[in-house]
Amino acid sequence: MFTTKIKAGQLWGKNKDDLKKQLVDLKQELAQLRTQKVAGGANSKLTKIHDLRKSIARVLTVTNATQRSQLRLFYKNKKYLPLDLRPKKTRAMRRRLSKHEASILSDKQKKRQMHFPQRKYAVKVRLLWFFEGWICWYPGEVGVGVWSMALTSRQLIY
Fold first, then answer.
1. pTM > 0.70: yes or no
2. pLDDT digits (tens, 9 = 90+) for 119-154
3. Under a CB-based contact definition with an 8 Å cutoff, are residues 140 and 125 in contact?
4. Is 96 helix (H, G, I), strand (E, B) or coil?
5. How far apart are CA 111 and CA 39, in angstroms?
6. Cα(156)–Cα(144) distance, integer angstroms
7. Which of 58, 67, 108, 134 is the most buried (most CB within 10 A)?
8. Which residue, among 86, 155, 88, 89, has the nearest Cα to 127 in the 3D structure?
């Protein structure tokens, strides 16, 4: 009979048979306490029932976790995983193309990229004014470069 709470740390080192035996013992004790409660036992039985139910839950949690970890090891290098071992994510994320599938180009796209590559050019611009985090440009012959702004410090970085 187990009258004290069972700690999960004690359960992790046990094997499957020990956990099953302990679960059966806990369930038998719980059944006895419930019959005593119906027969008119003391109120202290209620706290023992609560502790037993939580101990049963801990044993079941440890058995399920060890079983899942063993299954993960079994399916580690297999092509397919069971659905409950796959990452949950969201429905849209699960249906999204993989990185490899997204990077594949069709023959038409390959030809288009080969014959018409992205053009590289520079733009000549002149700074007209800088006010309240906004930059206004107009084309001119001042210089060539890429300009950007820092809105927080209101300084021009180039």
1. no
2. 877 666 555 554 444 444 445 444 444 444 433 444
3. yes
4. coil
5. 85
6. 15
7. 58
8. 155
